Structure formats: structure tokens, C-alpha cells
């Protein structure tokens, strides 16, 4: 495992510093690159909440992203910490695997609840441009979550000064990363106390027609949503590009949240951002909102 301090590289950070881990080894999945962002004045004499984020290569440095945009996570975290609006925290940015992203992120148990014919049809689905969604890879989000919970988190807790209780351990992402993060808090409610789900890709694939996935997701949530007594969940979406697909599905999710005892504004938020699309720039503009909701002082 190769670990290097990104701050010694030609990479500008507005705040904090990053330790970069190439291909974190795993017995569950292929190795994923991980960036560990530490706040300014990080000290081993203190302990910090931890946020695990998906699509980690999109968070800090636009020069390495496929679309030359980023979440500006270091700018946003640094500003919120300096203003006293959130607690000092550690952000663990897990890079996606490219061709295996959908197989890592699509919730496995809801998928496996479908018929064999439905599963085969989904495996053969294409993106809007015609490229394969799953690239011949089987869905293994169960293994991906075991990698996070059983390998990555123990390493982070051993190597850094962390608060380890679920009340200070969070997971988040956007689009498919949001779907995975919701799945994570359902599968591991004793590990994660909060989830950030931005522009949740409820359709799973890239068509609305003859798509059984949303119904499967909602059936799973009815059975597995964690207790409202000690968990917090944040949802949002815009209304442009792919985000235009989500309002009706989010309303169904919100009904389930209410049925399970979640109170909007207390331990659950669903927000709509008119005019916003499905992009890193849009998520950057509102990333402060879920940070304050989960890690606010």
C-alpha cells in the first residue's frame, strides 16, 4: 500500500491536507484509491468525526477529474470549520473504480429481489449514449460495503485520531453514490449514524420505462430503513438534466421516511433546488447544507 502526502505534489488545497493511498488492498473487491483529508491544525491529541464519501476523485482537484470539475470539498470544509458552523472532521474520499462503479454502488439486495429475467435485462442496459452500464461486471455492492466497514474503517480508526461511534461516523455521495450511501446506512446501522444522499439516482439505470429498480428499492427501505431514534438522513435534488427524473421517486421515499418515524427538519431533510442540474458544480454549491445537518455544531 503506497501512501503519500498530496501536499508535496503540485496540487493546491484551500485548506487542510490530504494523504493519498494508491489501490487500498482488499480481499472483497479490487483495490480502490483513497484520499484522506485532514483539517488544518489536525492533532492526534483530539478526536474527529469521519465522513466517508463516494466518487472520491471528484471532490478536491478538477485537474484530475474526467470533466474538469470538482466538489471544492476542501474549500467548503475549511470555510465551514473556520466559521464555526461544523465540527472539525476527517473526510475519507473513496475513488470509484471507473468501469466497475455501477457494480460497486447499485444496492445488491434490492437487485437480487428481482426475477432472473429482470436482472438479466438490467445487466444488458445501456447509458444514454449507448455504452454499457455494468460493463460485464456483476453487482457486488455487498462486498464493496464490507471493504469499507471491515477493512477501510478499521485502518482509518487505527491510523488517524477518530471518533468511532456511529453518532460520529457518516457516509455520503451523489447520484449512484447517494444510492450506495443510503444502502450502507440500512445495511450497517450500527456503523453509520448519518447519510448524505444528493441527487439520489433512484432509477439505478438510465431509463424510466419497464424499470423495476425503484419499486425494489422502496420495498427494501420499508423493511430495512434504520431507526429514526439515532440516525439522520439527508436527501436533495435539482430539476434539470438527470435530476428532473427524481421528484416523483423522492416523494415516494419521503412517504416511507414519515412512516418510519423520521421528522423532516430534525433527523431527516429532503430539499429541492430549482434550476440545479446533475453535476459536480451543482453539488458543490449546496454541499455545505448536508455538512451542517450532520456535523454542525
CATH superfamily: Alpha/Beta hydrolase fold, catalytic domain
Low-pLDDT parts are none
**Percent in helix:** 25-40%
CATH fold topology: Rossmann fold
Give the radius of gyration: 18 Å
Biggest pleated-sheet summary: 9 strands, mixed
Examine the secondary-structure arrangement and name the CATH architecture.
3-Layer(aba) Sandwich
Short descriptors:
single chain; 297 residues; alpha/beta; Rossmann fold; nine-stranded mixed sheet; 9 strands
Provide an overview of this structure:
With 297 residues, this protein is an alpha/beta fold. It has one domain (2-295): Rossmann fold (3-Layer(aba) Sandwich). 33% of the residues lie in helices and 17% in strands. It contains ten helices and nine strands. It has helices at 73-82, 101-105, 108-112, 116-123, 141-159, 176-187, 213-224, 247-259, 280-286, 288-295; strands at 2-5, 17-24, 32-38, 50-53, 90-94, 169-174, 194-198, 232-237, 268-272. It has a nine-stranded mixed β-sheet with strand order 1-2-3-5-4-6-7-8-9, with helices on both faces. Strand 4 (50-53), helix 1 (73-82) and strand 5 form a beta-alpha-beta unit. The longest helix has 19 residues, at 141-159. The protein is globular and about 55 Å long. The model has no long low-confidence stretch (mean pLDDT 94).
Amino acid at each position: 500500500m503506497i501512501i503519500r502526502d498530496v501536499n508535496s505534489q503540485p496540487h493546491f488545497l484551500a485548506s487542510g491536507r490530504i494523504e493519498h493511498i494508491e489501490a487500498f488492498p482488499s480481499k472483497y473487491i479490487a483495490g480502490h484509491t483513497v484520499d484522506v483529508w485532514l483539517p488544518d491544525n489536525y492533532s492526534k491529541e483530539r478526536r474527529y468525526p469521519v465522513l466517508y464519501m463516494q466518487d472520491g476523485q471528484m471532490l478536491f482537484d478538477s485537474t484530475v477529474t474526467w470533466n474538469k470539475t470538482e466538489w471544492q470539498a476542501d474549500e467548503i470544509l475549511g470555510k465551514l470549520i473556520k466559521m464555526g458552523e461544523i465540527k472539525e472532521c476527517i473526510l475519507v474520499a473513496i475513488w470509484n473504480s471507473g468501469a466497475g462503479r455501477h457494480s460497486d454502488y447499485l444496492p445488491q439486495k434490492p437487485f437480487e429481489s428481482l426475477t432472473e429475467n429482470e436482472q438479466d435485462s438490467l445487466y444488458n442496459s445501456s447509458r444514454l449514449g449507448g455504452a454499457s452500464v455494468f460493463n460485464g461486471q456483476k453487482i457486488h455492492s455487498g462486498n464493496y460495503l464490507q471493504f469499507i466497514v471491515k477493512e477501510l474503517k478499521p485502518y482509518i480508526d487505527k491510523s488517524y485520531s477518530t471518533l468511532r461511534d456511529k453518532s460520529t461516523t457518516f457516509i455520503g455521495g451523489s447520484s449512484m453514490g447517494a444510492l450506495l450511501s443510503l444502502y450502507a446506512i440500512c445495511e450497517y446501522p450500527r456503523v453509520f449514524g448519518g447519510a448524505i444522499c444528493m441527487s439520489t439516482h433512484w432509477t439505478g439505470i438510465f431509463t424510466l420505462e419497464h424499470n423495476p429498480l425503484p419499486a425494489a428499492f422502496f420495498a427494501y427501505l420499508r423493511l430495512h430503513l434504520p431507526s429514526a431514534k439515532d440516525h439522520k438522513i439527508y436527501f436533495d435534488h435539482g430539476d434539470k438534466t438527470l435530476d428532473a427524473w427524481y421528484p416523483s421517486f423522492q416523494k415516494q421515499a419521503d412517504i416511507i421516511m414519515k412512516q418510519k418515524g423520521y421528522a423532516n427538519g430534525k433527523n431527516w431533510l429532503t430539499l429541492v433546488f430549482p434550476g440545479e442540474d446533475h453535476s459536480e458544480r451543482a453539488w458543490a454549491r449546496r454541499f455545505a447544507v448536508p455538512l451542517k445537518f450532520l456535523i454542525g455544531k
